[in-house]
Amino acid sequence: MKTQLQIKNAINSIELGFVDFYENMVEYYQHQKNDNVSYADFRDRTNRATNPLACEKEAIFYTVAYSWQHYQTIKKLISIIDVTSDIAEKVRVIDYGCGQGTATIAYLEYLVEQGVATKSEFEIYLIEPSAVSLSIAKRLIERLADIHDIHVTIHTYKQYLDEPLLLQEESCSETVHLLSNVLDIGSIQSAIPALANTIKSIAGEPFLKSV
Length: 211
Known about the structure:
By secondary structure, the chain is of the alpha/beta class. It is built from eight helices and five strands.
């Protein structure tokens, strides 16, 4: 219950963007170490963050230990790719193995910084086998969208990447495919053929961003 409340408070603390959520989580972890997961326990249970997170304590540790680096990496990648000129009126965003939604958040925040985030509607598809991570991702993106007046519709898929992806029928002329820190995982590598077929089958001009 305490960790659930902390995650809720961290999400509600967002005023500008992901940095507020991250700093809130770090402060909590620093002051509540005895109530949180140790690195050794997290490493052993999740096989160094390659297994789906199972509880809120693991989600908090993951945020503190890994999320800022992932966020910075995807922001850097997006900044060197032209994703803002002639942006479509309706954009489909598919975040494969989304975790806590860090890649989607980084993408939307970049559009906010460039002044184009409110020019489009976003159909966001979050694919993730961890229920706790998926819940956090959805709430974070909703909070970010509310703050910056971004029009989003979020679809969540609690599944692995080698499972069929049944998208809603939407008239999106552009699709952004996000894969953040998942392709080095063995089980994901075996799913790449199925994933490639999924990507090829989706309508709309594709942009693929992978780190």
